[in-house]
Amino acid sequence: MSKLPNADFLHRLADIADAETMPRYRTELAVDTKFNEGDTFDPVTEADREAEIAIRAAIEAEYPDHAILGEELGQTGNGYFRWVLDPVDGTRPFICGLPVWGTLIGLTVDGRAEMGMMSQPFIGERFWADIEGAWYERAGKRQPLSTRNVGALSEAILHTTSPEDYHGDLKQGFDRLAASVRMTRYGGECYALAMLAAGRIDLAVEPSLQPYDIVALIPIIEKAGGVVTRLDGERAEEGGSVLVSATPTLHYEALRLLNGCA
């Protein structure tokens, strides 16, 4: 069985991805669309594809016995260790030139997310979790990540990427939660979840995530003191409707509102 990689390897993978995404950012890229049921436009670019190819090659060279799941190329291999990749999480803001996208690189061990990296190379920021904790770095300065405890739900800041994905009971639940918090903001993609780990946002709801959207972020948030589950309270490594909270108390209160509990 392979040993757990160290943080240096996460940074090496992020460097490899950055070398593919940054030369293509804010350029005239061809934008294709993937045809997924229910989606009218699901963009993909050369940056998405080439970054994933490059990350995969580095993992396969170093850890040939590890499985890899990526948004663009699917799953290869099986085993105790599985890398979960989203080369450009937030392709829509990427093609709009908005720097709230990021490269997500996660590692699960026996199905549980244990390490993760979110790289935002345009701003020059990295958020990651290793065996020692959760960390933030910019301009060579590194510091530990920590969620904040605002206490009451009425003082919390809530985020979701887009209100258009809410329907039926889930919309009613989100409306109840939004009415109970101090402020609700939209459009931050993976960067908003990194800001939750950094103590700037307190709650985030995402109605329909894939594993590659969340695995890298789970250990970053959990090791910063936060909580990540599906709306049914189970772990979120396989995606679904997901709630992220800065504290266990906020998480409990938000789940009750989202699920319509009295």
Automatic annotation (TrEMBL):
Gene3D superfamilies: 3.40.190.80, Fructose-1,6-Bisphosphatase, subunit A, domain 1 (3.30.540.10). Transmembrane segments: none annotated. GO terms for biological process: inositol metabolic process; L-histidine biosynthetic process; signal transduction. It comes from Nitrosomonas communis. CDD domains: Bacterial_IMPase_like_1. This is Histidinol-phosphatase. Its EC number is 3.1.3.15. Signal peptide: none annotated. One of its GO terms (molecular function) is inositol monophosphate 1-phosphatase activity. Keywords: Hydrolase, Magnesium, Metal-binding. Belongs to the inositol monophosphatase superfamily. It is an enzyme of class 3 (hydrolase). InterPro entries: His_9_proposed, Inositol_monophosphatase-like. SUPFAM superfamilies: Carbohydrate phosphatase. Mg(2+) binds at residues 71, 86, 89, 213. It holds the Pfam family Inositol_P. Its cofactor is Mg(2+).
